[in-house]
Amino acid sequence: MKTILVIEDKTEVRENLAEILELAQYRVIQAADGRKGVELARSDRPDLILCDIMMPELDGYGVLHILGKDPDTAGIPFIFLTARIDPAQIRSGMNLGADDYLTKPIDDVDLLHAVELRLKKSQQSRSQSTIDGLAGLLEALQQPAGTSYPCVRFAKKQLLYAEGNGPMALYFIQYGQLKRVKTDPQGNTLITALSKGGDFVGLAALLLNMPYTESAELLTDAQVCTLPKAEFLRLLTSHPDIAAYFMRLLAIELTQRDERLLLLAYQPVRKRVAEALLLVQRTFYSPADAVGTDQLPPSQLSLTNPAMSLSRENWSQLVGASPETVIRVLGDLRTEGMLELSGSQITLLDSDRLARLKH
Fold it and tell me: Which residues are in the HTH crp-type domain (predicted)?
């Protein structure tokens, strides 16, 4: 018989959950606050934990953080109970390693389905070490939301993480577009990299074990999956092919960043504008580079000759020049027949000539 720990400060809610679970032939232990919940998790080693977020003394995040640092309890499936779904709240829980969320009032069928699913996945994890190599990891991350790793939908302009924060997870973009930005003390912002569906984000800080040196902001609506730090590090140590893959990704990322910084430091604005146009084209609109396009919404599918759309602010941050300067250069390139402008949309007409401008 599987044991489930229910941590919930509201007696009526806690006892109702316990009654439903006991009817389904689970053994249930109860805790009325986070501190007692941690004690029971350590003494009874439950097969799964259901935990409220907002509690006195020690909230749900504190419970998950403490248990996640203890090797004896870190692997216990953990489901949060919450009165409302908030993307920022979900992201915090995902970063700490939460497996799922249930929204109050909790439907009986939803409760039992979530518990059954997480117990089943936990059993599979123990029997086959969760992921069987790199191919298994990539396949798991591209599954529909909630079936392998926690996935959350983000809205345009939401932050995935902020500069200066410590990394708690590796992020995988199932679909959507993202920019990574760095801001200097004067408030000037530079886009350091662009990411799309199929890309990992936050790798350098996680591997180097240092705070983020940039922020990650969504350019479009997106769906992002989270690979918790502890799980990621375990995969690196247990699967040499996964470790080699991410070391290669890190080397490529750092090399590309160095090249981009050199371009911004020494090249005139005209060349920087050309590079920015080509960077956006090959990152977001090149069919050859598209990854996982079967999972993209129709509005984000690659096109043969697409109209690229970014705000004046984003073009300015990509080029490292004022919006007025960037607009003037774009106007010159239009006059020379290299592109078309229509409001915020840009269509490249002669990518070869733009590429030659870089040299």
Answer: 267-352
Beta strands in 146-207 (DSSP E): 151-154, 159-161, 169-175, 177-183, 189-196, 200-201
CATH architecture label of 3-128: 3-Layer(aba) Sandwich (3.40)
3-state SS assignment for residue 166: coil
Contact 52, 106 (CB under 8 A): no
Which CATH fold would you assign to the domain 267-357?
A: Arc Repressor Mutant, subunit A (1.10.10)
Mean pLDDT for the stretch of residues 63-85: 84
Q: How far apart are CA 180 and CA 170, in angstroms?
A: 14
The first and second tokens of residue 68, run together, are: 């996640």
Tokens of 102: 């249930």
Annotate 35-47 with b (16+ C-beta within 10 A) or e (fewer): bbbbebbeeeebb
Give 18's contacts (C-beta < 8 A, 6+ positions apart): 6, 28, 30
* Mean pLDDT confidence for 270-284: 91
Nearest C-alpha neighbor of 200 from the set 242, 237, 240, 241 = 242
Amino acid occupying residue 287: P
Structure tokens at 155: 């809205």
Domains of the chain, by residue range, sit at 3-128, 136-259, 267-357
E strands within 186-257? 189-196, 200-201, 215-218, 222-228
Architecture of domain 136-259: Sandwich (2.60)
Looking up tokens 């990411």, which residue turns up? Answer: 195
Give the relative orientation of helices 229-238 and 240-266 as an angle to the nearest 10 degrees: 110
In the numeric block, which tokens belong to residue 304?
Answer: 């043969």
Measured over all CA atoms, what is the biggest interatomic distance in the chain, rounded to whole angstroms?
Answer: 75
Per mean pLDDT, which of 109-123, 200-214, 305-319 is the most reliable?
Answer: 200-214
Q: For residues 5 and 148, which has the higher predicted lDDT (pLDDT)?
A: 5
pTM for this model (two decimals): 0.62
Which of 28-37, 126-135, 139-148, 181-190 is predicted least confidently? 126-135
* The two structure tokens encoding residue 83: 């009165």
The two structure tokens encoding residue 13: 């809610």
